[in-house]
Amino acid sequence: MTALKKNAVGALDALYHNTNLPSEMYELLRDAMTEIELLRDRDEELEELWDQFEDIPMNQETECIEAPFLGWGVGISREEIWHWFDQRHSKGVAYLLYHGQEDYVPETKRLYGLSKLCFGCESTDCQFNHGGQCRFALVHEVKPSISEHSGCLSYEYRATDLW
Ligand code: SF4
Description:
This protein is mainly alpha-helical. The chain folds into three domains: 3-34, no CATH class; 39-112, no CATH class; 119-152, no CATH class. It contains seven helices and seven strands. It has helices spanning 3-18, 23-34, 39-54, 78-88, 92-97, 105-115, 136-140, and strands spanning 58-59, 64-65, 119-120, 129-130, 133-134, 146-147, 151-152. The strands form three sheets. The protein has a three-stranded antiparallel β-sheet with strand order 3-5-4, with no helix packed on it. A hairpin with a 2-residue loop joins β4 (129-130) and β5. The longest helix has 16 residues, at 3-18. It is elongated, with a radius of gyration of 22 Å. Bound molecules: iron/sulfur cluster. Iron/sulfur cluster is lined by residues 121, 123, 126, 128-129, 134, 136, 144, 152, 154-155.
């Protein structure tokens, strides 16, 4: 059980003992809170939400949403929302992106996993830097080598502006 559910059950128990909450209602709420959801049911719910998310307008330049979606407001990055789905759907966001077309899923999953190794970097003249983000992992499939004293050992000067 998650910490959130434990806290909710604790709060419900306190309500039951300190107020005159009818026992049928207490049991109903407790059962709902402690039920272990089937993965299939949760995936189906997430797939419905994903369908709704696909209708949300997206700024193609900033890759941020232009209308509220669930608890997210305008301006939230697509990446953050993808991450939320990725953590919850049993087959990950790659499955949702390609509607379960298995041929694409492993490769997209791999690239999505590698993109998680990218991070902000100020060395904009490094050839692995794209818009302030280090993309070294997308090329070499490992994180760049960074030394505490010498900085990034994977740095490579970009002679011409490729981007
Ligand atoms: S390889 Fe190193 S210097 Fe180059 S973008 Fe990545 S972190 Fe920055």
